[in-house]
Design brief:
Elements: H1 2-13, H2 16-19, H3 24-65, H4 71-79, H5 83-94, E1 101-102, E2 105-106, H6 113-119, H7 125-138
Helix pairs in contact: 1-3, 4-5, 4-7
Length: about 150
């Protein structure tokens, strides 16, 4: 498109080429050719923009109806290579329930009051798994702080 615009700009600033018999035919042919090319390029650009907007709209629609991430997926995303172990501990401690409670121990990983104060906590699986992961890392990446072992 840049080239097409430059050629058209050239002929706009060199109008005399259109009135000189030696150059007029070729100048008009070049102007017509580059106008046509520019029109096609602009149409393609608009079509690409419409297609991209449609893809964004479809993607947003798919995300809007997508099921929320499961507790297991959240735990695996946060614990990475320790996913299996973390799932077994959480299953044993809370039955994978974020609202599980046993005295002072709450959530997916049944963290006590002191641990929640130090490592954090929250109502969502994401917040609870992140807090448990911080605790897990601080304990040397072993499961000794938990009653249930993988």
């Amino acid at each position: 498109m840049q080239h097409e615009r430059e050629v058209l700009r050239f002929f706009a600033t060199h109008r005399w080429l259109l009135s000189d018999a030696r150059f007029a035919v070729e100048a008009r042919r070049q102007i017509a050719l580059h106008r046509s090319n520019l029109g096609r390029a602009l149409a393609q650009q608009k079509a690409r923009a419409r297609a991209q907007a449609l893809r964004r709209k479809r993607s947003a629609r798919r995300l809007a109806v997508a099921k929320p991430e499961t507790t297991q997926h959240v735990i695996c995303r946060i614990f990475g290579s320790y996913c299996g172990e973390a799932l077994r501990v959480s299953q044993c401690e809370s039955g994978l329930r974020t609202d599980a409670q046993n005295g002072q121990y709450l959530g997916l990983f049944q963290m006590g009051t002191t641990e929640r104060r130090i490592f954090g906590n929250g109502a969502s699986a994401e917040e609870q798994a992140k807090a448990a992961h911080r605790y897990f890392v601080a304990s040397g990446k072993d499961w000794s702080p938990w009653s249930c072992k993988p």
